[in-house]
Design goal:
The chain is built from five helices and two strands, in the order ααβααβα. It is mainly α. The structure holds calcium ion (2 copies). The site of one calcium ion has 8 residues, from strand 1.
C-alpha cells in the first residue's frame, strides 16, 4: 500500500514538474533571469539548436523572458 502511494506521489510530482516547466520561471532552473539551451532541455521542451538560435533575438546565447515568450507564442511555425 505504501509503495502505491509513493508511486502515485512520484507520478504527480513528475506531471506537475512538466507543467510547471512550461513557463519561463519553471524553465529557468537557476533563476538568473535567462534560460540556456540545456535548461530548456532539462525542462522537457524540445528545442534544437536552430530553433534556440532563432529564439535568441539578441544573440547572447541565452533566452530572456521576452525571447522565451516570443518563441513560445510563435510556437511551431512550419517552413
Ligand atoms: Ca538560467
Ligand atoms: Ca538572448
Amino acid at each position: 500500500m505504501k509503495s502505491i502511494l509513493v508511486a502515485l506521489f512520484a507520478t504527480t510530482l513528475l506531471v506537475s514538474t512538466v507543467y510547471a516547466a512550461k513557463n519561463f520561471e519553471g524553465v529557468d532552473a537557476d533563476k538568473d533571469g535567462k534560460v540556456t539551451q540545456s535548461e530548456v532541455q532539462q525542462a522537457g521542451l524540445t528545442l534544437d539548436k536552430d530553433t534556440f538560435t532563432k529564439a535568441d533575438a539578441d544573440g547572447d546565447g541565452t533566452l530572456n523572458a521576452d525571447e522565451f515568450k516570443n518563441y513560445h507564442v510563435s510556437g511551431h511555425s512550419h517552413g
